[in-house]
Amino acid sequence: MRYLPLTDADRGEMLAKIGAPDVDALFADVAAVHYLREPIADLPGHASEMAVERHMRRLSDKNLAAGDAAFFLGAGAYRHHVPASVDHIIQRGEFLTAYTPYQPEIAQGTLQMLFEFQSQVARLYGCAVANASMYDGSTACWEAIVMASRITKRNLAILHEGLHPHYVSTIRTMAKFTGDSVADRAPTLSADAGIDALIAEIEANAPSCVVVQYPDILGRVYDLAPIAEAAHAKGALLIAVNTEPVALGALKSPGEMGADIVVGEGQAIGVGLQFGGPYLGLFAVRDPKHVRQMPGRLCGETVDAAGKRGFVLTLSTREQHIRREKATSNICTNSGLCALAFSVHMTLLGEKGLRALAAENHRLACLAADRLARIPGVAVVNDVFFNEFTVTLPGDARAIVRDLAERKVLAGVSLGRLYPDEDQLASGLIVAVTETASEDDIETLAAAIEEVLR
Amino acid sequence: MHEGVKENSYSRETATGNRGLMLEEALIFEIGTNETTGVDLPEPQAGADRLGGLGRSEPIGLPGLSEPETIRHYTRLSRQNYAIDLGLFPLGSCTMKHNPRLNEKVARMPGFADIHPLQPVDTVRGALEVINELAHWLIALTGMHGVAMTPKAGAHGELCGILCIRAALEARGDPRAVILVPESAHGTNPATAAFAGYRVENIPATSEGRVDLEALTARLGPDVAGVMITNPNTCGLFERDMKAISDAVHAAGGYVYCDGANFNAIVGRVRPGDLGIDAMHINLHKTFSTPHGGGGPGSGPVVLSEALSPFGPLPYTARTKDGVVHLVEEEHADEFAREHFGKPLQSFGRMSAFHGQMGMFTRALTYILSHGADGLRQASGDAVLNANYVLRSLDDVLDAPFGDSGPCMHEALFSDKGFAGGLTTLDLAKGMIDEGFHPMTMYFPLVVHGAMLIEPTETESKAGLDELIRALRSLAERARSGDESLKGAPYFAPRHRLDETLAARKPVLAWHGPATPGGTPTLSEQGGS
Q1: What phi, psi does A131 have (nearest 5°)?
Q2: What's the CA gap between A236 and B512, in Å, rounded?
Q3: Across the A/B interface, how many CB contacts are shorter than 8 Å?
């Protein structure tokens, strides 16, 4: 029990000070019938560092790591190279083991970092203000819908067909309980993504918000300006969702095209895949007047008693620890360390690096799309994309993905996995190509598909 | 000042603003440029452009730093933080204990850190076993029936538990409107209940700092969906009447939610399931030592009673009789439920995109295996022993409002009663900073005026506690004597007291300086069009 510093002699002295015969006596308020006097029987006892590491290594080795395969999965989680410096910084104990910065005089490290992070996200998204991180993209998206209902005093959210189906499920789950209505549909395997139909739907209703993903679940990219215009004409807000922040190194920002709230998943920058979590929710608003309706924490600049610049958590009268049941959200713990990873990685990239990274992703994705399109029976659905696109395969893509995995080729995310009830999507495969995939990997993928289809 | 060191012009200000090792650090927006980068990437090539005419044409305004500048910037910032690695972090209600580095090493094993949530299930069997093994421990330690692993933090777990309650009530055709929340509850509790569509009603505390059982039972009725109780509670006390409360709520047709933020005090000694609790979140970042990282990430698995287990969220893992751990997602959820449980799926749905905080699961499981059942029990004992030692070592100089109410659990509660000269809890807390400690939780719980809530945890030594006690005794004596100088504390921190009113009145929430301090990119550098 190497984590416990007290010796038996210490315990004895302390019990004497307290005036208790033993530690069990300190649990006197627990009814005797409910108090366990011995360790729980069917659980093992403590183990050495070496033994635990061996056990965990064995479990780790049962998984096929992305780095040991030709890897093309995306659909909301992306594999990018994370510079070694990022992990070094986030493992510094002063960041790793700090608490929420409620005592600003001795938390300026975290607070200044959060201020810088907010500024980076706001600029990336083309917005005025970003908050200091939500849990992940899907919950941030839900919070944006709640916020839009509060601002517009309406409760119909229209979700575009290109929104990630797990985000749609999250929204539908939560809407059942808050009384928001949700209009959504499964995607069509079309390049135009039904934008005209979406605009017609907006014009026919008075929604609180319209939610559009950019690039969308199939990798499609489209101009948000006409959608924003239609939404604004009906008094609704446009919520833009981005799950791949690297894309914004190449593409116009959602804020620039008129989105009112921009939310997304920051995992791709600095955080890593981690089997789905912890990830990093990003949340920004274009109009500063919406700040007071935002969920989560905000860090602001101020001065100290000696006149020096410093940073504090601010506008906390929106938050649950003060407003209780009237708060804008119940969110409390956020993803501070993931925000640090994002911010360090983004600082290493800078404008120049982010643009170069985005260009390289796009180049490789174009290469992959062209190569796969040459395979008989394979068709690329969308010709406008960033680093992710959708192909159709002859047959159920789920089975083909499983066959490819046995060859250590992780080919992409089958639409059947995401939309099990939509038979017309079963042939679809979402392929993401980042800078971590070499040209050789692309050839390996194509050759493996050719072999499996033969 | 040491004899021989004379005050001179440097005692006030330096040209740089630095004071020896206390370094000032500018913002990245002030020191970076849009031409600087700390990574080597190929120059963008002409040709590939399938962005549909939506390429960026304007600079984003993101400053870059070289690798050495980046390391130095963040290392300098890190030194302006207090952290558990530097010293005692005696925050009430937020267990801040040692974060073992083995946990970090394990979480970074490629088989855990470098796998995608949507990889074919056969390529992530080890990850599913981690989730299942952790789930097994959580169920055994709490005496519950099932566990929902996906909630991303404590408050998200609260939402999960309340949604399970709501789904269970709706499944039996008995929707109810009210959730009862004691006034000593964490602010997240009422916010959660409201977010889930319930009306929140407060239940008072007794003069002993516990839930008023009579007031609670009197309010129960056919409109009450459930109660949210924190046990051990936020006054640092065990709710003696917990089983009676549960029985009364169940008899009235409702469910009991327990805020498990304080589970660290009772691990291996009390099973919440034995007390009739239906749902309880467990903060892995508190009880099971995953690092808090300046505010997160957290992880809030929710243990569930037999009555609520069928309603938990998707996705989930389940081990079948053949020993295989399955990942149950939408893809085959209903089929799985029928085959293995003999009934259709009753899940309330999905509450976030993927499977939960895997990076926290590996850390928590590593910690749990290191401690084992015997070590976890010893840990809760030591946590409670440490808290009582602090309580009894200070109750002659600090008011302990519930000091006569039996032993405290993992945290000791004091108040500012007896302070002179207008000094408050805030002043004493800021004085702690000058003594080299992180302040305790201030002004919470709300049921005590000027509350100070101290949770030392089990990973502090007796020598460390004695040092804390020495500092607090000194500060308490200064506060009781009305020592004015405390009002200016802290004196020795990177910043003096910060103007929080100014920050809220004139919010500056992002850098507003020039977008591209190093110059504007030319069109050819921007790529796309």
Answers
A1: -90, 180
A2: 28
A3: 737
Are the Cβ atoms of A179 and B197 closer than 8 angstroms? yes
Tokens read off for A409 = 């080729």
CA dist list (Å): A280 to B158, B163, B353, B455: 20, 23, 12, 29
Query: How distant, in Å, are the alpha carbons of A381, A403, A407 from that of A450?
Result: 18, 12, 13
User: Is A324 in contact with B385 (Cβ distance < 8 A)?
Assistant: no
How far apart CA A405 and CA B203 sit, in angstroms, is 56
Residues of A in contact with B47 (CB under 8 A): 363
Which of A385, A387, A379, A383 is closest to A427 using CA atoms?
Answer: A379
Selecting from 3.60.150.10, 3.40.50.10540, 3.30.1120.10, 3.40.640.10, what CATH number does the domain A84-346 have? 3.40.640.10
- Determine the Cα–Cα distance for residues B112 and B325; give it in Å rounded to an integer: 16
Q: State residue B525's pLDDT score.
A: 34
Q: B374: which chain A residues are within 8 Å (Cβ-Cβ)?
A: 1, 39, 45-46
Bond before A226 cis per omega within 30 degrees: no
Angle at A201 between CA A196 and CA A207, to 5 degrees: 135
The minimum CA-CA distance between B280 and chain A, rounded to whole Å, is 16
Residues of B with CB below 8 A from A362's CB? 48-51
Q: What is the pTM of this model?
A: 0.96
Domain formed by A66-81+351-453, architecture: Alpha-Beta Complex (3.90)
Q: Residue B50 is which amino acid?
A: R
Over residues B398-425, the pLDDT tens digits come to: 999 999 888 999 999 999 999 999 999 9
Closest CA to A362 of A388, A383, A392, A390: A388
Residues A328 and A168 sit within 8 Å (Cβ to Cβ)? no
pLDDT in tens, chain B (529 residues): 455 555 555 556 788 888 888 899 999 999 999 999 999 999 988 888 999 999 999 999 999 999 999 999 999 999 999 999 999 999 988 899 999 999 999 999 999 999 999 999 999 999 999 999 999 999 999 999 999 999 999 999 999 999 999 999 999 999 999 999 988 788 889 889 998 889 999 998 888 889 999 999 999 999 999 999 999 999 999 999 999 999 999 999 999 999 999 999 999 999 999 999 999 999 999 999 999 999 999 999 999 999 999 999 999 998 888 889 999 988 888 888 888 888 888 999 999 999 999 999 999 999 999 999 999 999 999 999 999 999 999 999 999 999 988 899 999 999 999 999 999 999 999 999 999 999 999 998 888 999 999 999 999 999 999 999 999 999 999 999 999 999 999 999 999 999 999 999 999 999 988 755 444 433 333 333 3
Cβ neighbours of A141 in B, within 8 Å: none
Longest dimension (CA), chain B: 84
Q: Give A24 to chain B, closest Cα distance, Å.
A: 8
Nearest to B124 among A45, A177, A275 (CB): A275
Instruction: State CA B403 to chain mean position distance.
Output: 27
Q: Determine whether the interchain pair B238/A178 forms a contact, defined as Cβ–Cβ distance below 8 Å.
A: no
The overall average pLDDT reported for chain A is 96
Indicate the burial class of B408 (C-beta count within 10 angstroms; 0-12, 13-18, 19 or more): buried
Distance CA A46, CA B368 (A): 8
Structure confidence by residue, pLDDT tens digits, A235-274 = 999 999 999 999 999 999 999 999 999 999 999 999 999 9
Predicted ipTM of the assembly = 0.97
Which of B19, B352, B380, B529 best tests the A interface by mutation, with the highest count of A CBs <10 A?
A: B352
Domain residue extents for chain A? 8-54, 66-81+351-453, 84-346
Which chain B residues have a beta carbon less than 8 Å from that of A434? Answer: none
